[in-house]
Every structure is written in C-alpha cells, then in structure tokens.
TrEMBL record:
Gene3D superfamilies membership: FAD/NAD(P)-binding domain
Chain coiled-coil ranges: none
Pfam family, one: Pyr_redox_3
Record has Oxidoreductase as a keyword: yes
GO molecular function list: flavin adenine dinucleotide binding; monooxygenase activity
The organism of origin for this protein: Amnibacterium kyonggiense
Keyword Transmembrane in record: no
This protein's name: Putative flavoprotein involved in K+ transport
Alphabetical keyword list: Oxidoreductase
Length: 419
C-alpha cells in the first residue's frame, strides 16, 4: 500500500464514503485514469465491524460477492461470510488496487459552485468537478417516538448497537421488528437460551433452500435481481420495502417464527403504544405470519415455473405447512411482570444528508435520482437499496451500479489515460 495521502485542494471526482460502494467506483475511476479521492470519515468498511452483531453472517451466498476486478476468493462459494470475514475480504479488495483513500476525513458540507462543488472537511477544503455520495442509505438509527414513554428501568438498544446476548443485562428481552435484523437478533438471543418476546412488523420471508438449491441462486438465474425499480409493480415505493428474512448462520437456514413460538418465544403484533412498563399491540400477529408465509410460497411458485420452463431436472419438495398458529392475539405486555429488562429496536434507519447542501432531495429526505444520477450535473449517489434494481443492495449489484456511475463520470471528465 502506498504512503498516506494528503488532502488535495482540487480533484476531478470526490467520492464520499469508503465502503464497498466507494471502493467499487474508485476501482473504475482508477482503471480509467480519472483523478479522484475517496474520503472516509472513519476507516474503510468500518460499518461491517461497528454496526453488526458478533454472530452476524451474510444473507447472500458468497458466490454473489463480486466487486469490480475482485470476486470472492475463499473456499466456500455457497457459504456465508461472517462479519469479520467480510471486513477482511474488503480489506483484500482495497489492497488489490490501492485506491486513493483518506481515512479519518469527514465531509462537513457539500455545496455547488460555478465549476462544480466545494467540500468542507475535517482536513480542510476541497474543490471537485464531480462528486459521488457513497455513504449508503442507513445513517441514523430509527426508534419510534413511543420509546420515550418506556420506564427508565428498561435498557433500550438499537439493532445497530446490539452485539451479543451476553452484552445485555440478565432477564428477558423484547425485540421490536421482524425484518432481517430483528428476526436474526431474535434467533441469536433464542439460541443463547434467553427468554425472547418479538413484536412483528409486516416483513416478508423466504426459504433458504428449495428444490435442491439456495433460493437466491434460483432467483439470480431467473434474473430477479436485474429487474429495475421502474419495472417493478411498486415503482419507486419499492425502495422503502423491507428485505425478506432468512439467515446464513450455521450454513444457512430458514427463520421460522412459528417454530420459535413452539419453542417458547412469545410473538406479538405491531407495537402501538407504551406507558411505563405496559405496552399495547395491534391484533396483527396472525396477519403478519400469514403474509410472510405467503410471500415465501409465492417465491417457490416462481421457482417452480422457472424450473418447468427451462426443463431443469430438480428434486421435488413438499410445501411449508404452518407448525404453529396463534390461539389469541396478545393485546398488551407488562414488561415488569414478564421480567423483561431490555428492548432491542430493530426498526431500521433514516437517511441523514444534512451535510449535502444541494437541492436534490424529496420530502422524506431521500435523494432523487435515476440510476444514481441526479438532476444536478456531476452529482451522483451510489450504494443505495434499489438504486437501479433489487440487486443494488448486494455486492454484485453495487459493482454494476458503480460501473454505470463511473461511465457517467467519465463522460464529463477530461480525457484520461488508463492507469
């Protein structure tokens, strides 16, 4: 790796964010010989260390881990990398082409100028002709307002700060939210022998394996991850959707909340109110469990149709039959009476682009763009879910989006000689 860089005063392209998206576009810019710098407020790929729990594994199989010029290089292409393995893999990616990264440099503001953009950073000022905002879309942990009404005795932790069952106070735990993080954290606590209560949201689920293969492998072959947000029936609203829950833990398996209930996990519908230690829930438990199962079965229907169309010789498999059905809809929970000492909020994140002082945002604070390109010439976003397709949230999708953004950057940059 080359010697540490100093912040230049001027650059053709400033890339803000040193995660997989920032590294991927840097690879393309370096390959094209385009002058640029990557500004990272902490360390490269730090989110994989700082915002994942100890037992975290990828949900996507390792074979889908493909970045520009660098594919998964381990011995388990059908396995699932752990948090530490992902961070190490991204470290090897960085070393493979030595991008011009400045770590510990936070961008405080981004403004438009006559010639491009002005960036004020903790290391000084920088002028850039073009900018790529590659900070992802999950910035600030989102916690519902009713959290403020909980008893002070209750320890509250957001999923971004959850590390392990052992790091929490003794006692039962309530997890709020059943997306990927919530479902996996509930399983982590359950496997550790903790008493777990789980308040569900309307998250879908998917089988891990079906008819002899990982479902994600089937879906990739079917081109599902290539469907653009414009082609999707939900349109741009799909960018706000919750991911299907499953896990890569222990080689990968389904997460069946009904099975957890059989084993003692307490399930509830949507959390609606809190008053001290007493919580109220909407009667949505049955609806949410049935919805998650219906999505899983619809995915299997699509896989069946693909197998039939392509004439693939694949083993048949019995469909899922619910192993547990709620006898009643719990309307309330007294945290003190249940011995609950901790609430884990798996309620997602909200964007925070206050430092981007350019008018490219909608009313909810999300950037408006098409395939990452905004209406302001030279300003791009990268690394967002559904930036272009469902695959945009995966390593391979980030790679494709980075290639497109780099092509648009190159079209506005002075002619350069590839490195």
């Amino acid at each position: 790796m080359s010697a540490p860089l100093d912040l230049p005063s001027q650059v053709e392209v400033a890339v803000v964010g040193g995660g997989q998206a920032g590294l991927a576009v840097s690879w393309h810019l370096q390959d094209r010989g385009i002058d640029h710098v990557v500004l990272e407020r902490a360390t490269v790929a730090h989110d994989w260390r700082d915002r994942r729990w100890d037992a975290f594994t990828l949900v996507t199989p390792n074979f889908q881990c493909r970045l520009p010029g660098f594919a998964y290089d381990g011995d388990e292409p059908d396995g699932f990398m752990t948090r530490a393995e992902v961070q190490a893999w991204l470290g090897r990616y960085r070393a493979s082409f030595d991008p011009p990264v400045l770590e510990g440099v936070e961008v405080l503001s981004l403004r438009r100028t006559e010639d491009g953009f002005a960036l004020r950073t903790t290391a000084g000022d920088l002028a850039a002709h073009q900018v790529v905002v590659a900070t992802g879309g999950y910035h600030v942990p989102s916690v519902p307002a009713l959290a403020a009404s909980l008893s002070r005795r209750i320890v509250q932790v957001h999923s971004a700060d959850y590390r392990s069952p052992e790091a929490l106070p003794e006692g039962a735990v309530l997890v709020v939210g059943s997306g990927q993080s919530g479902a996996q954290i509930a399983e982590d606590l359950h496997l550790a022998g903790r008493e777990v209560h789980l308040a569900l949201g309307r998250a879908p689920r998917s089988a891990r394996f079906y008819r002899g293969r990982d479902c994600i492998a089937w879906l990739e072959d079917m081109g599902i991850y290539d469907v653009t947000v414009q082609q999707h029936a939900s349109g741009l609203a799909k960018r706000e959707s919750t991911n299907h829950y499953m896990t890569g833990r222990a080689g990968g398996h389904d997460i069946d909340l009904r099975a957890f209930a059989l084993e003692g996990m307490r399930l509830y519908g949507r959390l609606t109110a809190a008053d001290g230690s007493v919580l109220a829930f909407a009667p949505t438990l049955t609806e949410y469990l049935d919805h998650a199962d219906s999505v899983m079965e619809s995915i299997k229907n699509d896989i069946d149709a693909h197998i039939a169309r392509a004439g693939i010789d694949a083993p048949t498999e019995a469909r899922y039959s619910p192993v547990w059905v709620p006898e009643e809809e719990p309307a309330a929970l007294d945290l003190d009476a249940a011995g609950i000492t901790t609430v884990v909020w798996a309620t997602g994140f909200r964007p925070d682009y206050r430092w981007v002082e350019v008018g490219v945002f909608d009313g909810s604070g999300h950037p408006t763009h098409r395939a990452g390109e905004t209406d302001v010439p030279g300003l791009h976003f990268l690394g967002l879910p559904w930036l272009t397709t469902w695959g945009s949230g995966r390593f391979a999708g980030v790679a494709r989006d980075a290639a497109h953004v780099a092509e648009r950057l190159a079209a506005r940059a002075p002619a350069a000689v590839p490195a």
